[in-house]
Amino acid sequence: MSGSARGFGLAATTPATVIRAAAAAAEEHGYRTFWVNDTPDGDGLAALAQAATATERIGLGVGVIPLSRRTPESIVEQVRRLGLPLDRLRLGVGSGSGPGALRRVRQGIRALREALPAELVVAALGPRMCRLAGAEADAVLFNWLTPEHARVSAGWLQEGADQAGRPRPKLYAYVRVAIGPAAIQRLEQEAGRYERIPGYSEHFARMGVSARQTAIAVERPEELPAALQPWDGVLDELVVRAITAADTEEQVLELVRAAAPSNPY
């Protein structure tokens, strides 16, 4: 990979007006995909439906729906009910919480593949889930990691693909980006929350870094392109996961412009 395409991501709890504006701006500025997360208080698929109304060609990703909270059948039903464009959909799922994570993801991906002709993405942190993603998914979504560890994780993914006799899935990663003191403070608060989650705590220990060290924080927009350079060529697509002071349209669009890819499609 001589370079990486770029996506842009927001929290699904971001106001719908901002989601529509950000998705339209991301499409205009040459991003390949637009992403939202999925949480109990932020419905990722519903947020993507808002983005779909404001765009025509950009890929639409949800990263990710926990399979411990949603069944594949309920996901399929909602995708169809919302009329999400399947040719643009990047449907991300993760294990969520509880025992049986690998089996839950394997069965979930297979059920979704039978029902929906969309790109299926698996969230993976450790070696076993990366190998499973390599064997089963169309793409993997990494999260809270360094460029160096992304290369290690890609190796695990390749092992799974090789064992299954299939091509390596695409590499996506959420990379949290903040501009300015207020956004950086919010980024640090989010990093602290993730460090208290057991699975992520193990992930950071495995890498030997803090959550904050995996993110990008700059004081001014013009500093961002250089800060993103260490990721060049590491992934198939880097997803700029926006952290702003208050998720206002002005703040989000500033970040869309500052992180825009240099070579639009």
Write structural notes for this entry:
With 265 residues, the chain is an alpha/beta fold. The chain has a single domain, classed as Alpha-Beta Barrel (TIM Barrel), CATH 3.20.20.30. 44% of the residues lie in helices and 20% in strands. It contains ten helices and nine strands. It has helices spanning 16-28, 44-53, 72-82, 101-115, 127-136, 147-164, 181-195, 198-207, 224-228, 249-258; strands at 5-10, 33-36, 59-66, 89-94, 119-123, 139-143, 170-179, 216-218, 237-243. The chain has an eight-stranded parallel β-barrel with strand order 1-2-3-4-5-6-7-9, surrounded by seven helices. Strand 6, helix 6 and strand 7 form a beta-alpha-beta unit. Helix 1 (16-28) packs parallel to helix 10, helix 3 (72-82) runs parallel beside helix 4 and helix 5 crosses helix 6 (147-164). The longest helix has 18 residues, at 147-164. The protein starts with a strand and ends in a 7-residue tail after the last helix. 47% of the residues are buried.
Kindly summarize this structure in a few lines.
The protein is α/β, with parallel strands linked by helices. It is 44% helix and 20% strand.
Offer a few descriptive terms.
about 45% helix, about 260 residues, globular, about 20% strand, alpha/beta, eight-stranded parallel beta barrel, TIM Barrel
